[in-house]
């Protein structure tokens, strides 16, 4: 029993150390060369376990992601101000619309290995002063690179991104098949961090949690 307790204590200490180092060690280690003027404002949205990226909507965005409208998402509605993108584990994402509906199997898959999906939502005005919202300015070229990264995360079928039928939380969101495999080490927040690095921002080296990603973003941007 003592050996088991000692092992568990060492395991917890190792995880805490990894999360701390992953937060405090920046990625990339050195700031990139000075970029152009930040002309596009993106938002990072978070809850207790998950982060999304909100992209402001304009005509270019509507054209580029017109497949969302084809799937019935009202991204072209005049009151829509943002398209919100998130990547995550298929089982947990699809089967846990609310915390009260958490089930053992999706949690197990999230902690081990699962297929991935893209979740896309539309939103009106978002209050940036909210504690769960963080805004960042990126220049035109890096904004384009961010959109490339997001688009590349969608799994492509013969007709484009593959919408998952009958999978949505409301009339304002859709799920799509995604590229990559999900696990506890490479999860939704590490996807968000990679996307933000593509946009020229610095994150922690490994950010499995929204809190660690948020702290590293405040430290290095």
UniProtKB/TrEMBL annotation:
<dbReference type="Pfam" id="PF09601">
    <property type="entry name" value="DUF2459"/>
</dbReference>
<dbReference type="InterPro" id="IPR011727">
    <property type="entry name" value="CHP02117"/>
</dbReference>
<protein>
    <submittedName>
        <fullName>TIGR02117 family protein</fullName>
    </submittedName>
</protein>
